[in-house]
Amino acid sequence: MNLKKIVISLFFLLAISSLQAQQYQISLLTCDPGEEIYSSFGHSGIRVLDLTTGRDMVYNYGTFDFGAPNFVLNFAGGRLDYFLSVSTFDRFIAEYNYFHRSVREQILSLNEQQKLELISFLETNYLPENRAYRYDFFFDNCATRVRDAISTVLGDQLVWHDEVQEPVDKTFRQLIDEMVYYMTWSDLGIDLALGSRLDRDATPLEEQFLPKYVEGAFGRAEIQGDGPTRPLVSNTRVILDFEKPAGSFGEINPYWIFWLIAIIFTGITFIGFKKGKLFIGFDVAFFGILGIIGLVMSALWIGSEIPSTKYNWNILWAFPGHLLLAIVLLKKTIKPWVLKYLLFALIMADAAVVFWILGWQSFHPSIIPLLLVLILRTNYLYYNIGKYKKVR
């Protein structure tokens, strides 16, 4: 009799478990990039659909508050917290529909226990004391958090199969360039702010700081060890599909502007040489701007908690000391150290070229004409400034 009760109880437990397994559908949502810099890398979210009640929610690790105190300073200093938010699926999709950003869904082939564990993991993360996290663009963001949630639940049962990827090594900088190549000013700003650590090859796992690489990794992955081996993704569908705009540098971009600056400086240098003039006002503006850029890069290098802002060799050509040079060039007399500084600035600019050629850091291509101007004018001033200004 007792055996009969046990068998019946087990039957009902299995029946309940079977129903629970069919209760939830969990999927990865991958959203295409937007037109703003903060949305230009795409987005990832986790959709949890309760098939019994119809409750349809999206867990979003990419939420931040523009109105937070000192938002810009905290973002630049690596002290900005993102947090996990939860919204309805309809509201989530409405936003991407409004901005004409495509959204794709990969339904995950999790078993009953895995689904419940993932939901429990997400709900625990959503508790007020847990939902905020210190954002790191490369290693802890909306995409890596989604990947890590699945990895935590599945553990060793999750096999990524990264070996079937196309064997092309890409640096972090190249991965960023894929997303912002046509956003020329943003691309330039990123290259100026972030240092040589971006110029090492990213592992397949590290590439997943970008949502499109998370999507690709999920498509290759398998679940093993809980029965027959199966793909992590059981089905894929397109929820929103918009045509991607054709890439364009835009009419106002640093490429032609910087080359125009180089042509102007070449012209005034030639005219100055012929007419015996320095045209020092151009140098005051040029070195002043480079010095200000150098001060910003130095502040990021020293004061930011973002590791990628360290060892930024853009400082070889945009050096903070150039701002002091711009100030002293306005004076009628100059100190002997100015000549030594001009030689120092020339050597630094040449060193930047060497660093670039040797691959120690890749600079933004648009700065080539600025480097040429820097080399040209430091040479010209070094050999000619003493003819027109007193050195004492």
UniProtKB/TrEMBL annotation:
<feature type="transmembrane region" description="Helical">
    <location>
        <begin position="280"/>
        <end position="302"/>
    </location>
</feature>
<dbReference type="Pfam" id="PF13387">
    <property type="entry name" value="Lnb_N"/>
</dbReference>
<dbReference type="Pfam" id="PF25221">
    <property type="entry name" value="5TMH_Lnb"/>
</dbReference>
<protein>
    <submittedName>
        <fullName>Uncharacterized protein DUF4105</fullName>
    </submittedName>
</protein>
<feature type="transmembrane region" description="Helical">
    <location>
        <begin position="255"/>
        <end position="273"/>
    </location>
</feature>
<dbReference type="InterPro" id="IPR025178">
    <property type="entry name" value="Lnb_N"/>
</dbReference>
<feature type="transmembrane region" description="Helical">
    <location>
        <begin position="366"/>
        <end position="383"/>
    </location>
</feature>
<feature type="transmembrane region" description="Helical">
    <location>
        <begin position="342"/>
        <end position="360"/>
    </location>
</feature>
<keyword id="KW-0732">Signal</keyword>
<feature type="domain" description="Lnb N-terminal periplasmic">
    <location>
        <begin position="18"/>
        <end position="174"/>
    </location>
</feature>
<feature type="domain" description="Lnb-like transmembrane">
    <location>
        <begin position="252"/>
        <end position="385"/>
    </location>
</feature>
<dbReference type="InterPro" id="IPR057436">
    <property type="entry name" value="5TMH_Lnb"/>
</dbReference>
<keyword id="KW-1133">Transmembrane helix</keyword>
<feature type="signal peptide">
    <location>
        <begin position="1"/>
        <end position="21"/>
    </location>
</feature>
<feature type="transmembrane region" description="Helical">
    <location>
        <begin position="314"/>
        <end position="330"/>
    </location>
</feature>
<keyword id="KW-0812">Transmembrane</keyword>
<keyword id="KW-0472">Membrane</keyword>
